[in-house]
Structure formats: structure tokens, C-alpha cells
Amino acid sequence: MSESTPVSRKETFVFTPADGVPPQVGPFAHATRLGDLVFVTGQMPTDPATGAVVAGGVVEQAEQVRANLAAVLAQFSMTFDDALQVRVYLREFEQDFAAFNERYATWFEGPLPARTTVGVTGLAVGALVEVDLIAGR
Q1: What is the pTM of this model?
Q2: How far apart are CA 30 and CA 42, in angstroms?
Q3: pLDDT (tens digit per residue) in 20-58
Q4: Cα–Cα distance, 43 to 90 (Å, whole number)
Q5: What distance separates the 2 farthest-apart alpha carbons in the chain?
Q6: Angle ∠(109,114,118) on CA atoms, nearest 5
Q7: Can you give the chain as a three-state secondary structure string?
């Protein structure tokens, strides 16, 4: 790297329910930015106002996860269409994969990002779904 090449510095961000983002349930930042990339930590289906998991099944929980991710992205003037990579974690993979996919497809107006979906044996706060993503310009 030449001396005239700018070096990006990692920045971490923690948001509050006033920003529409639920409080952390562990020692992590809600997002990390490096250059034009924003890495958003996994969002749970928790209501920012109460910190409680929303009632319902995977579709209802997925919508709260979407809202929480959108609130983090908005802090960077980004939307789901800026997503480059999405990782989905489903507690009941066989049961919820199709229903989640149907709802997930509505999150984007433009081309879909790359995605990985995995089944897990458990998620924090008893959630059925968790989603993290990497966004960039």
C-alpha cells in the first residue's frame, strides 16, 4: 500500500431504543463500519420499546427482525437494497423455511443479496429467527 492510499478505520456503533433498535443482550456493537461496508449484528425479534420477544410464529418474528435491521441500516442512510450478504438462523428449519422465505422476499425492491440460511438448535431470548447482514455502497 502506498503512503497516499487512505486507510479505513473500524468504527463501532451502539444504538438505543430511541433509535428504534432493541438493547443489546450481550457484549457487542449493533454495527461495525469499515470504509463503505456496514456489518450489522444479528437482530432478534425483540420490540425496541419493551425488549420482549414479539408474539407469534416465525412470520411475525421475521417482521420484527426486519424492522430492527431496518432501524440499524437507517442510521447509515441505508436500506435492505444495500445488503450484500445476509445470514439467516432458523430454530425450526424444516417447519419455518418456506414461510420465512415468502416474507423475506418482500424485504427487497432491487436484486436480492447473497444469502446463507442455517438451522440451529437454539437462539438467544428463545427466538425462532435471527438475521445478520453486511451492507455496502
Answers
A1: 0.92
A2: 8
A3: 999 988 899 999 999 999 999 999 999 999 999 999 999
A4: 12
A5: 55
A6: 115
A7: CCCCCCCCCCEEECCCHHHCCCCCCCCCCCEEEECCEEEEEEECCECCCCCCECCCCHHHHHHHHHHHHHHHHHCCCCCHHHEEEEEEEECCHHHHHHHHHHHHHHHCCCCCCEEEEEECCCCHHHCCEEEEEEEEC
